[in-house]
Structure formats: structure tokens, C-alpha cells
Amino acid sequence: MSSPGAGPSKARNRRSPISVAAAAIYMASQASDQKRSQKEIGDIAGVADVTIRQSYKLIYPRANELFPADFKFQTRVEDLPPP
Questions:
Q1: Nearest 5°: CA angle at 33, between 25 and 67?
Q2: Which pTM value belongs to this model?
Q3: N vs C: which end of the chain shows fewer Cβ within 10 Å?
Q4: Mean pLDDT within 69-79
Q5: Distance (Å, rounded) from C-alpha 83 to C-alpha 67?
Q6: Where does the Transcription factor TFIIB cyclin-like domain lie (predicted)?
Q7: What is the rounded distance in angstroms from the CA atom of residue 78 to the CA atom of residue 64?
Q8: Range of the domain at 41
Q9: Positive or negative, the Cα torsion across 55, 60, 62, 66?
Q10: Number of domains making up the chain
Q11: pLDDT tens, 10-53?
Q12: How far from 8 is each of 5, 42, 43, 83, CA to CA, in Å?
């Protein structure tokens, strides 16, 4: 059962919290000096790298909002790998 106001597109875009967390870890690693591949993160998190790619694609447009103000960027948000 969908939550009120959740249309078909919202239902399709739902991701498990672990998938979103894995994508966020991947994004943070790409912005830091400790880069890790989607496969490396997926192996640890127990999700497929394709699942990380799909979740990354959803969070990528809001990347500027996801990092704390004091994050030490090695790679600027504008230079993160595109989804």
C-alpha cells in the first residue's frame, strides 16, 4: 500500500535504506581522498553495485545538500562522477 500522495513514479523510486546509505558512502568516498568503487562498497554493504548506481543516480542531483559544511573535499561536488 502506498502512502498518501505517493504517485506511481514515487513508488518506483523507493530504495531500501541500505541502498541509499551505500550510495551516500560511495558519493562521500568519491569526494574524499579515500575513493572506493561501487563494487567495494557493495561487497561490504551487501548490495549489488548496480543497486548503488541506481541509488546514486537518485541522490546525485542533491549532492550539495548532503555534505556537512565542514567536510574536507578532495574532489568538489561539481567534479563527482556523473550517474
A1: 45
A2: 0.82
A3: N
A4: 95
A5: 17
A6: 15-60
A7: 9
A8: 14-67
A9: positive
A10: 1
A11: 545 687 999 999 999 999 999 999 999 999 999 999 999 999 99
A12: 10, 27, 31, 22
Is residue 37 a contact partner of residue 56, using CB atoms and an 8 Å limit?
Answer: no
Residue 21 lies in a domain: yes
Specify the amino acid at residue 66.
L
Whether residue 33 is contained in a domain is answered as yes
In a domain, 82, yes or no: no
Q: The domain that contains 52 carries what CATH number?
A: 1.10.472.10
Yes or no: say if 31 and 75 are a contact pair by the CB < 8 Å rule: yes
Does residue 7 lie in a domain region? Answer: no
